[in-house]
Amino acid sequence: MRWLICVLFQIFYYTELLYLASVALTKISILLFYLRIFPQKSLRKIIYFTIGLCIAYMIAFVLATALQCIPVRIAWEHWDGEHHGKCIDLNADAWCSAAGNIILDLIVILLPMRVLKDLKMNRWRKFGVMLMFLGGLL
């Protein structure tokens, strides 16, 4: 039974890493889509900068989570109290990761709004296009 608990903690450990990487890579794919449809040079510079932020976020939090305990195996063996090592405050790591993720979400969602606001179409159609891009809030 003890080995099963360790296996479950190990699965959780690896899925945390996959989650952090997939969240950042999803944002990067949306930003690459923006590069394809928005030709404005000023917006493109901001998009490239935001891609850099997403990459930095991914590297920082994947590494922090992967190395949350030294030795690493303590991440899934510490529950029994028999194994000892040094671990970071996982609660603080999760809150910082969530805050960074929310900030990046808002940046990615709000980036195209300035360009969409300047479109030459009637107010309701423009509103509909903006709603389509804001669908990421849900």
UniProtKB/TrEMBL annotation:
GO terms for cellular component: membrane. Keywords: Membrane, Transmembrane, Transmembrane helix. Its main location: membrane. It is found in: Membrane. It comes from the Eukaryota. It is a multi-pass membrane protein. Residues 11-137 form the Rhodopsin domain. The chain crosses the membrane at residues 12-34, 46-67, 98-116. It holds the Pfam family Fung_rhodopsin. PANTHER family: PTH11-LIKE INTEGRAL MEMBRANE PROTEIN (AFU_ORTHOLOGUE AFUA_5G11245), SAT4 FAMILY MEMBRANE PROTEIN. Belongs to the SAT4 family. This is Rhodopsin domain-containing protein.
